[in-house]
Write a structure and sequence with these properties.
By secondary structure, the chain is α+β, with helices and mostly antiparallel strands. The protein contains 10 helices and 33 strands. Helices cover about 15% and strands about 25% of the residues. It starts with a helix and ends with a strand. A hairpin with a 4-residue loop joins strand 24 and strand 25. The chain has a 5-stranded antiparallel β-sheet with strand order 10-11-12-14-13. A 4-stranded antiparallel β-sheet has the order 5-33-32-31, with no helix packed on it. A 4-stranded antiparallel β-sheet has the order 6-7-8-9, with no helix packed on it. The N terminus is likely disordered.
C-alpha cells in the first residue's frame, strides 16, 4: 500500500517497481523507529500533506502549461467579479478568494519604491496572484520586442544542406543554360514596387497598428437569429432580398373572394407564360395539394437573379423635405395686402369684361355684356353715371393724365369726358376731344353729337377691337384687333388726331399690347412670345419666350424691368428682362385658365384672376440691387364671385395708392377687397 501511494505521488517517470521479468526490488526508506508502522496502520496514513505541499516535487524544466489551474471559471472577463469577494471557483466548486495583496494606488506607489522586483512583477488576473519574472523570461520578452528569435541559440543562417545529389549526371534530364531573364529584375515587379512606394508616400497605405492590447472584448447574443455585426466575413456584403411571404391567394384553402371566375381563368390561359400569375385553387385538406410543377424553374430563376443581378449599396440621404423648400417670409410679415371683402357693385347684367380706376382711386369705370359704361363711386359702390353704347363693351381704360375714359365696343373706340375730378383737367380734356377730325387709311375719327352728354369722340376701325391701353403721358392710345391680318395694332395720337400702323404684318395672333412706363418701348404679346420694340429706333430689341401653349394676358411692372404673363393653360410666368429672355419663375397657382393680371402702382403686389372664381394676391418685391433676385410670395386667395357658365373672374385692377383690389366676374358683380 505504501509503495502504491508513493508511485501516485512521484508519477510514472519515477521507477519504484522492477521491470518485467526481474525480481521486484523495493527501495529502502530511511525511517526512524518512531516512524515505523505496522501493516494494520498503513491504511490509515494520510498523504494529503505530501500532495498539497508545494515545492516537494518541483521541476524547474516544467512549463507553465503543465501547472494546475486553480480557478475554473473559463475565458470570461474578470471585471464581472469586481463587486464580489471572490474571483471564481475551483474544480470542487469552492470559491477562490481574492488575494489580500490587492491595494489601492498608494500601496502600489509604496511597493514601487520599496520592492526592487516591482518592474518584473506581473499579476495573474485569473488566479489573483503576483508572479516575479525570472531573468530568462525578461530576456525572452526583450528579444520578442526587438523582433528577434525567441531562442538565443537559433541560427537562421545555417548552411544549406543539399538533400539531393551534388554530382552532375552524365545524362541529365535538362541541361539547358540559364536564360538571361532570370538574372534581370522583372519589370512587372518593378512597377508593383513603385506603385506601393507611391501609395505609402501619399498616405494611401498606412502601417497596421497593434490594437490588441487596447481592444476590449466583444460579446454577442448567443440566441440571436440574425448575423453578428461584430463578426462580419465581408465588409461590402449585401444580403440578398428576401422573397415575399405567401398571402391569401397562395393558400390551399383561400377565401371565396380570392377564387378566380371563369372569365379570369380564360384570360389566364390566353395570357403569355411570363405574364401569368399564380392561379388560386381550393383543396379540402393539405394532403390533397399536388406538387408544384414550376418549383424547380422558379428556384433556378431565383439563383440566376442572385448570381447575375448585381447588388449595390446606395447611400440614403437623411434629409428633411422642409429644408429643400426656399425660406420665404410669412404672409403676415408682408402686409398690407387685400384680404377681406368690403363692397359689392351690383348693377351689371351679364359678364363684366373690363374695369379701371381714375388717378386718385375715388371712381371706378366698368363695361361688359350689357353695353353700358358705368362710373362708380369706389368707396360706396354707388353708380354716378351711365353711358349706353351700341355694342358689347370689350375694354375700358381711364387715362390717368387727362382724365379721359376710352371704351371699346365692337369696332369703335369711344372717348368720354366724365367731368369728375379737377375742373382744370376736365377742361383740358374737353379741348383735346374737340379738335378737328379727319379720315385716315386705317380708321376714321368722328365727333359724337347725338349721344349722351360726355361722349365726345369716337374712332371707327375696320375690325373688331379686343383691347386698348393708354400711354403714361395720356397722348397715345394703342388698339388691338385680333381678327385683322395686316392691321392688328394701331396707335392713336389724341393731340394731333392722327393714327399710325406700327406693323405691316403681325407675327402671330396678337393677344395684348402695353407701353413701357418710362421708356419708348412697346410690348406685344402673342400666343407664345413677348416681343419688345423700340419705337424710336423702330426695331425689335428683345424676344421673350413664354414657355406656355397660349398666352392670354400680361402686365408690366411700374419700374419696367419685369413682366408677368398669364396663359390659358393655368400658368403664370415672371420675366426678369435684365436676367434672361426665358421666364425667371413659372407658377401654377390656379386650377383653370388665367384671365387677367395686374401690378400695383406703388406697393410690391400683383394679382391674377382665373376661371376658377379666385383672385390670388402675390407679394412681388423687385430690388434695386441687380444681384438680388425678385421675391415672389403668394399671400392671399380671394373668393367672392360665383361661377357662371364656363367663365369665372374676368378682370381686376388695383387702387392707385391703397392696398385695395377690384375684380369683375362673369356673374355681373364687381367686388372690392381691402
Amino acid at each position: 500500500m505504501l509503495k502504491r501511494k508513493v508511485e501516485d505521488i512521484l508519477g510514472d517517470d519515477t521507477t519504484v517497481g522492477a521491470p518485467d521479468g526481474e525480481d521486484e526490488v523495493v527501495e529502502e526508506f530511511s525511517l526512524s523507529e518512531e516512524e515505523e508502522m505496522s501493516e494494520e496502520e498503513e491504511d490509515d496514513v494520510d498523504f494529503g500533506d505530501v500532495v498539497d505541499r508545494p515545492g516537494d516535487y518541483e521541476d524547474d524544466e516544467c512549463s507553465s502549461d503543465e501547472e494546475e489551474i486553480r480557478n475554473r471559471i473559463g475565458n470570461i472577463p474578470m471585471e464581472w467579479y469586481d463587486d464580489y469577494d471572490h474571483i471564481g471557483y475551483d474544480i470542487h466548486g469552492g470559491r477562490v478568494g481574492k488575494s489580500s495583496k490587492q491595494g489601492d494606488q498608494l500601496d502600489k506607489l509604496l511597493d514601487r519604491m520599496d520592492n526592487p522586483d516591482f518592474w518584473r512583477t506581473v499579476r495573474n488576473k485569473v488566479e489573483g496572484e503576483e508572479i516575479v519574472l525570472k531573468d530568462d523570461d525578461v530576456s525572452l520578452i526583450d528579444r520578442l520586442k526587438s523582433n528577434k528569435f525567441p531562442d538565443l541559440g537559433y541560427n537562421p543562417y545555417e548552411p544549406w544542406v543539399d538533400l539531393f545529389s551534388q554530382d552532375k549526371l552524365d545524362t541529365p534530364i535538362v541541361d539547358t543554360p540559364e536564360p538571361k531573364r532570370r538574372f534581370i529584375p522583372s519589370r512587372h515587379e518593378h512597377k508593383k514596387v513603385m506603385k506601393l512606394i507611391r501609395a505609402i508616400r501619399n498616405g494611401w497605405i498606412k502601417p497596421r497598428t497593434d490594437e490588441s492590447e487596447n481592444r476590449k472584448p466583444s460579446y454577442y447574443d448567443l440566441w440571436s437569429t440574425g448575423p453578428d455585426p461584430n463578426t462580419k466575413t465581408h465588409s461590402n456584403h449585401i444580403p440578398a432580398p428576401k422573397l415575399p411571404l405567401p398571402g391569401n391567394e397562395e393558400s390551399y384553402n383561400p377565401p371565396e373572394e380570392y377564387l378566380p371566375t371563369e372569365e379570369e381563368k380564360m384570360a389566364w390561359e390566353n395570357a403569355d407564360e411570363e405574364d401569368r400569375k399564380l392561379l388560386s385553387k381550393k383543396y379540402s385538406c393539405l394532403r390533397h395539394v399536388p406538387a408544384y410543377p414550376q418549383l424547380i424553374n422558379e428556384k433556378f430563376d431565383r439563383c440566376l437573379d442572385l448570381y447575375l443581378c448585381p447588388r449595390k449599396m446606395k447611400m440614403k440621404l437623411n434629409m428633411n423635405p422642409e429644408d429643400l423648400l426656399p425660406k420665404l417670409p410669412k404672409p403676415k410679415d408682408l402686409k398690407p395686402f387685400p384680404s377681406a371683402k368690403a363692397v359689392k357693385f351690383s348693377d351689371h347684367e351679364g359678364h363684366v369684361y373690363s374695369i379701371d380706376s381714375n388717378k386718385s382711386g375715388e371712381f371706378l369705370v366698368s363695361g361688359g355684356e350689357d353695353k353700358i359704361v358705368r362710373i362708380w363711386e369706389a368707396s360706396t359702390g354707388r353708380v354716378l353715371s351711365r353711358y349706353t353704347l351700341p355694342d358689347t363693351i370689350t375694354s375700358v381704360k381711364w387715362d390717368k393724365a387727362q382724365n379721359i375714359i376710352a371704351a371699346a365696343a365692337g369696332n369703335t373706340v369711344y372717348f368720354i369726358n366724365s367731368g369728375l375730378g379737377d375742373k382744370l383737367v376736365s377742361d383740358a380734356a374737353e379741348r383735346t376731344l374737340s379738335k378737328d377730325l379727319k379720315e385716315h387709311e386705317t380708321c376714321t375719327w368722328y365727333p359724337v353729337t347725338d349721344g349722351e352728354e360726355g361722349l365726345k369722340m369716337k374712332i371707327t376701325h375696320h375690325h373688331g377691337v379686343t383691347g386698348i391701353t393708354w400711354h403714361a403721358s395720356g397722348k397715345y392710345l394703342a388698339v388691338t384687333m385680333r381678327d385683322s391680318p395686316n392691321c392688328a395694332v394701331l396707335i392713336h395720337n389724341l393731340q394731333k388726331a392722327s393714327s399710325q400702323k406700327p406693323f405691316n404684318k403681325s407675327k402671330g395672333q396678337i393677344q395684348q399690347v402695353a407701353f413701357h412706363p418710362n421708356k419708348p418701348f412697346f410690348f406685344v404679346l402673342t400666343q407664345r412670345y413677348v416681343r419688345v420694340y423700340n419705337l424710336v429706333k423702330q426695331a425689335m430689341v428683345r424676344k421673350l419666350v413664354c414657355g406656355v401653349k397660349w398666352a392670354s394676358c400680361m402686365a408690366v411692372h411700374p419700374k419696367g424691368d419685369n413682366l408677368i404673363v398669364g396663359s390659358y393653360d393655368k400658368t403664370l410666368v415672371w420675366f426678369d428682362m435684365d436676367l434672361s429672355t426665358k421666364p425667371y419663375k413659372s407658377l401654377q397657382q390656379h386650377k383653370k385658365a388665367v384671365r387677367d393680371v395686374c401690378f400695383h402702382s406703388r406697393l410690391p403686389l400683383y394679382s391674377s384672376v382665373s376661371d376658377d372664381c379666385s383672385a390670388i394676391v402675390t407679394h412681388g418685391m423687385v430690388y434695386d440691387d441687380l444681384v438680388k433676385n425678385p421675391l415672389i410670395v403668394p399671400v392671399k386667395v380671394l373668393r367672392a364671385h360665383k361661377p357662371c357658365t364656363k367663365y369665372g373672374v374676368l378682370c381686376n385692377v388695383f387702387h392707385p395708392s391703397l392696398p385695395w383690389l377690384f375684380t369683375g366676374g362673369s356673374d355681373g358683380d364687381i367686388w372690392l377687397y381691402v
